[in-house]
Each structure stands twice: as structure tokens, then as C-alpha cells.
Amino acid sequence: MSFIPSIDVKGRVVLALRYEPGETDPSSPFDGKKASRYSDLRYKAMKAREAGAAALIDEIDKVRPPYNVSVLNAEATLFALEHAGEYARQAALLREQRERLQAALRALPGVTAYPSEANMILLRVADAKRTFEGMKARGVLVKNVSALHPLLANCLRLTVGTPDENALMIDALKASL
Predict the structure, then answer these.
(1) Sequence spans of domains, the chain
(2) From the centroid of its chain, how far is CA 69?
(3) Is 10 exposed, middle or buried (0-12, 13-18, 19+ CB in 10 A)?
(4) Residue 89 CB-density burial (10 A; 0-12 exposed, 13-18 middle, 19+ buried)
(5) Which fold has domain 92-176?
């Protein structure tokens, strides 16, 4: 009987049959009563373990990495590491723009901007729905988070952007208050 490697729902390496055994196949390591072409992998893995595959699974686990990383994820990581300088430059620009945006928001009457270390800033205005609609009409999209929780009543979430994007956002906010 030939086996192929497969993965069960827990991410462990198990063995599954290369073909689906017939219901009455007496040579099947599966019980022959329920195994059919419609058997699911969990059932097959359970029966494969009972049939002695556990020792082989334990041997395979010795050489398996502690976590699975796809080729695509590995390549994306290498790309990020090769371009770490660019990512650092972008992060520095984001921090600088966040500070400038925070200062501009603090200068606006009727706006309470909450401190942030992220690329978003939460602010409270007198009427979040009206402000949101006004900014939207001016081509600036922000997130109205007022309905998400009572503590967020009349709050909007702004995303820190480029200097030009931030200037447009402040102008739209001023016009929409």
C-alpha cells in the first residue's frame, strides 16, 4: 500500500493513502466499514495512527521545522530584510507626519485629538456624522467609529499620510466642523 505525506487540521504531518480504499477492502488500514472515497482527512489520520503510522509521524516530526513558513512568506521576509533601510525611512517619515498632524489637530477648536503611537489618530468632534460626511464630500475618507462603542461617541479615526495628504485632510476637517 503506498502512502503520501499530508497535513491534518492541527498542522501535524500525517500519512494518508494515495488512493481511496473501497468499503470492503480488507487490506485497508482504515476499518473498511466507514472508509470510502468520501472519508475526510481527520478520520484517515486517526485510523493511520491506529494502524502504526504514529512512529513514522514522530520520526518525521524530528526533522520538521518548529513552525511552517511558506516559500512566499520566506521570500517576502528576505525582501523586507534587503530593504530595511527604506522601511526605516518610511517609518521615520510616518512618525514625523504624525507629530505634525497631532499639532495641527490640537490647534483646531472643538477637536480633541488623543495621543497615538500608531499610524492612526483618534479624535472627538461635536458631530462626527456631519464631519464625516463633509470630509467625504471633499474627497477625504476617514473612519467614523462613533457606533463601535459608547466611549467612541462622536469620534473619527484619521490615518497619517504623506505631507500633501495630511494637508488635504486638515483642510477638509476645518471646512467640515
Answers:
(1) 12-63, 92-176
(2) 15
(3) exposed
(4) exposed
(5) Aspartate Aminotransferase, domain 1 (3.90.1150)
How far apart are alpha carbons 67 and 53 in whole angstroms?
21
Q: What is the DSSP letter of 23?
A: T
Q: What is the pLDDT of residues 94-123, one digit of tens each?
A: 999 999 999 999 999 999 999 999 999 999
pTM: 0.58
3-state SS, residue 16: strand
H-only helix segments in the chain: 41-48, 54-63, 71-82, 84-106, 128-137, 163-176
Distance CA 123, CA 105 (A): 8
CA separation for the pair 142, 173 (Å, rounded): 10
